């Protein structure tokens, strides 16, 4: 696993407003960096830039590195940055198992089958392969969504307020599950809720940078 | 009271459909002695033109529909999110408004051996000083017709698909799919198209039924010997002794549509099985940027070709002298427009009065129906509106004409107008229904508590709030009426010459410059209506803001 590094990132909106200027940070494998700030402060825009799906009207300068590889000119689908959004976006035309297989890379048919059931088991979702995602609870959906991302073998994890739509009672449980699953990856969390921040994380507050 | 309005409306709409089907079924089996006293099927199957015509219709319908589907998918995948997409979205609605017959004529001006596409590259690239004799248009295999159907129907399917994109959350699917390692084209084929297809399926079936049974475009662009099946049937229906055969053919045509739908279902099932397996494989593959470029080229080419057909009509309508291989006319004139004004005045008036009648009454009926539906909680009868779009015009109208002949109501202006109304109403209802059902009911209550009665709420609150879809629906109604050929022909008994009738019947016999004027007029009327549909709501908004 490699560290995820951002060098001198500046983002400028079409009206000239700077979302951030000369922002640099590095996240080592197993570390969690939290980007905090009120809505509109550009947290999600930074994630879009990292994944390579930034709106073309926003001007960006700066570099993103994964270990010794510069990702700036790597296609979105080759960057291997796992992304989790507020909504879980489990694909409605696939069963839970098919959603996971869609994320899973490689392997023979039987290996794929057993990896999917093993990962469901690890998340306490044993035997849910054939269920329609629409019939799952919010917490189950969040876990399946994270499993799908992890099965795609990302080199880093980007989380965009992944807990904000969950029940308050569920949040703690899903947070623990996420931090446990992501323990070997560099992880970037975007949130405005301080309760989301795990104990060992470092914090980058964007509200002060403007 | 309200319930009665709803029942009357539904009956007015359903009556000609029932009558039309009966009027085709009875003579086909020889059960309508004044028109046909023997069954028509044996004679139909014995006709040597039967199988070639059926085969030609099946071939053109299947190939054209497949191409429409493939081009739509291609345009979605390669253009979505690019500048080309904005161009497509802006230019497709006017292209959709241009009637089939007019676009067919414009296409002939483009692809004929003496057409503009040859002129552009001659003699510099080809060395041709005279029109080549390598091909003829229309060709005997139906490719001209296929091309015409494709450039006319692709905008229809593409716009239907574009309207559904927000509902299938395209941007999120692309983002998630790509971060999971899939190239954009694979995100489309595995994540978006499986959700999109069920939403455009009905439109695709309407296109398939239309391609199989089209008459006006097949007369202009289709082969002559044998013609397509519906053109063959049209040649029989006005022959007094052939009513039974024509009716039997109309039923075979409807059965053919049913058969095609059945085949479609089987193909869908197979493809979805294969797609299911491929989605599970987790194979990422590689993206091929070159395909994207090729697909964008094809989409742009199709768009330019469609626009050129209209440009051709306009140029030919003001041409005095245009020798091959000149790219543009050497002498121009407006005399085709001005000299023929007297000749065109009568068909133009008929076209306009029919179009206005259709538009006004389709709007009133649609609003009344949607109000009944809203206030009475009656079941949504959306399927009913699709019947005239899915059953071939030939099948319904042969029967309707037979019944009109028996009751002596053929050739009456009101019969023709009634038929236009039946064909325009479905579009008006379906366009208005979305906005009508979505409008926040609180607007009504807000107005009611201020003391406004039902009619005041309807005219001062509901309709003004929905002025945009109302104007769009009106423009579509007008475009549908202006384009109608078969209903006017069959129910008008030759007594009501519209621009569409003039255009199709005089084609081939009359100077192509005069044809160009007719086709231009037929295209301009709906384009004006679409322009007004954009301008009127803006005008009212600007009025309020000053």
Structure description:
Chain A contains five helices and nine strands, in the order βββαβββαααβαββ. With 210 residues, chain A is an alpha/beta fold. Chain A has a domain of 146 residues: Rossmann fold (3-Layer(aba) Sandwich), CATH 3.40.50. In chain A, helix 5 links the parallel strand 7 and strand 8. The model of chain A has no long low-confidence stretch (mean pLDDT 89). Chain B has 546 residues and is mainly α. Chain B has two domains: 244 residues, MetI-like fold (Orthogonal Bundle), CATH 1.10.3720.10; 230 residues, MetI-like fold. Chain B is 77% helix and 1% strand. Chain B is built from 24 helices and two strands.
Condensed summary:
Chain A has 210 residues and is α/β, with parallel strands linked by helices.
List the helices and strands and how they pair.
The complex is a heterodimer of chains A (210) and B (546).
Chain A: E1 4-12, E2 18-27, E3 32-36, H1 43-51, E4 59-66, E5 69-70, E6 81-84, H2 96-103, H3 109-122, H4 138-151, E7 156-160, H5 168-181, E8 187-191, E9 202-205
Parallel strand pairs in A: 3-8, 3-9, 6-7, 7-8
Antiparallel strand pairs in A: 1-2, 1-4, 4-5
Helix pairs in contact in A: 2-4, 4-5
Chain B: H1 2-28, H2 41-46, H3 50-79, H4 83-97, H5 100-111, H6 116-121, H7 143-164, H8 170-179, H9 184-213, H10 216-221, H11 229-237, H12 243-281, H13 289-317, E1 319-321, E2 331-332, H14 335-339, H15 341-376, H16 382-390, H17 393-407, H18 413-438, H19 442-449, H20 454-465, H21 467-483, H22 486-492, H23 499-506, H24 512-545
């Amino acid at each position: 696993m490699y560290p995820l590094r951002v060098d001198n990132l500046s983002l400028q909106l079409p009206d000239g407003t700077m979302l951030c200027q000369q922002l640099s940070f590095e996240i080592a494998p197993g570390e969690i960096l939290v980007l905090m700030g009120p809505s509109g402060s550009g947290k999600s825009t930074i994630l879009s830039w990292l994944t390579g799906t930034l709106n073309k009207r926003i001007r960006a300068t700066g570099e993103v590195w994964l270990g010794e590889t510069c990702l700036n000119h790597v296609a979105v689908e080759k960057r291997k940055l796992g992304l989790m959004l507020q909504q879980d976006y489990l694909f409605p035309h696939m069963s839970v198992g098919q959603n996971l297989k869609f994320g899973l890379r490689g392997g023979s048919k039987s290996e794929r089958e057993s990896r999917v059931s093993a990962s469901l088991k690890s998340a306490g979702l044993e035997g849910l392969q054939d269920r329609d995602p629409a019939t799952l609870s919010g917490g189950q959906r969040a876990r399946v969504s994270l499993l799908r991302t992890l099965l795609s073998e990302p080199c880093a994890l980007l989380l965009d307020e992944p807990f904000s739509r969950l029940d308050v009672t569920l949040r703690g449980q899903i947070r623990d599950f996420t931090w446990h699953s992501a323990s070997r990856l560099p992880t970037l969390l975007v949130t405005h809720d301080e309760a989301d921040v795990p104990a060992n994380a470092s914090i980058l507050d964007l509200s002060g940078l403007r | 009271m309200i319930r009665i309005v709803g029942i009357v409306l539904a009956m007015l709409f359903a009556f000609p459909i029932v009558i039309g089907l009966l009027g085709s079924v009875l003579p086909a089996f020889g059960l309508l002695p004044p028109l046909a006293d023997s069954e028509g099927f044996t004679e139909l199957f014995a006709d040597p033109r039967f199988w070639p015509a059926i085969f030609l219709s099946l071939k053109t319908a299947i190939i054209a529909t497949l191409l429409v589907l493939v081009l739509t998918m291609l345009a979605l995948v390669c253009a979505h999110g690019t500048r080309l997409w904005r161009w497509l979205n802006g230019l497709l609605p006017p292209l959709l408004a241009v009637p089939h017959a007019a676009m067919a004529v414009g296409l002939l001006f483009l692809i004929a051996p003496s057409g503009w596409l040859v002129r552009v590259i001659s003699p510099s690239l080809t060395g041709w000083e005279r029109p080549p004799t390598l091909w003829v248009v229309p060709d005997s295999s139906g490719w001209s017709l296929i091309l015409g159907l494709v450039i006319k129907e692709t905008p229809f399917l593409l716009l239907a698909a574009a309207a559904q994109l927000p509902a299938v959350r395209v941007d999120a699917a692309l983002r998630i799919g790509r971060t999971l390692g899939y190239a954009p084209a694979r995100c489309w084929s595995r994540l978006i198209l499986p959700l999109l297809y069920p939403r455009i399926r009905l439109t695709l079936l309407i296109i398939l039924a239309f391609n199989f049974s089209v008459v006006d475009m097949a007369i202009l662009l289709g082969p002559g010997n044998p013609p397509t099946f519906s053109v063959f049937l049209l040649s029989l229906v006005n022959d007094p002794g052939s009513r039974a055969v024509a009716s039997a053919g109309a039923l075979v045509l409807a059965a053919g549509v049913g058969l095609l739908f059945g085949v479609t279902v089987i193909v869908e099932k197979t493809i979805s099985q294969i797609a299911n397996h491929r989605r599970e494989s987790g194979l990422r593959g590689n993206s091929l940027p070159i395909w994207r470029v090729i697909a964008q080229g094809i989409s742009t080419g199709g768009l330019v070709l469609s626009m050129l057909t209209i440009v051709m009509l306009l140029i030919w309508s003001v041409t005095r002298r245009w020798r091959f291989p000149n790219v543009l006319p050497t002498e121009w004139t407006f005399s085709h427009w001005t000299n023929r004004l007297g000749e065109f005045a009568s068909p133009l008036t008929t076209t306009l009065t029919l179009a206005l009648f259709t538009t006004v009454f389709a709007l009133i009926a649609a609003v009344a129906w949607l109000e009944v539906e809203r206030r009475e909680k009656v079941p949504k009868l959306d399927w009913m509106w699709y019947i005239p779009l899915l059953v071939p015009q030939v099948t319904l109208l042969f029967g309707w004409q037979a019944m009109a002949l028996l009751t002596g109501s053929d050739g009456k202006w009101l019969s023709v107008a009634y038929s236009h109304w039946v064909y325009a109403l479905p579009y008006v209802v379906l366009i208005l229904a979305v906005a009508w059902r979505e409008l926040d009911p609180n607007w009504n209550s807000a107005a009611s508590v201020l003391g406004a009665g039902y009619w005041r709420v309807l005219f001062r609150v509901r309709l003004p709030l929905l002025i945009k879809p109302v104007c769009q629906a009106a423009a579509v109604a007008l475009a549908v009426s202006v384009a109608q050929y078969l209903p006017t022909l069959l129910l008008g008994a030759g007594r009501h010459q519209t621009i569409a009738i003039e255009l199709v019947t005089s084609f081939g016999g009359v100077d192509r410059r005069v044809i160009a004027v007719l086709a231009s007029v037929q295209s301009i009327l709906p384009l004006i209506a679409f322009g007004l549909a954009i301008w009127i709501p803006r005008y009212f908004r600007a009025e309020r803001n000053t």
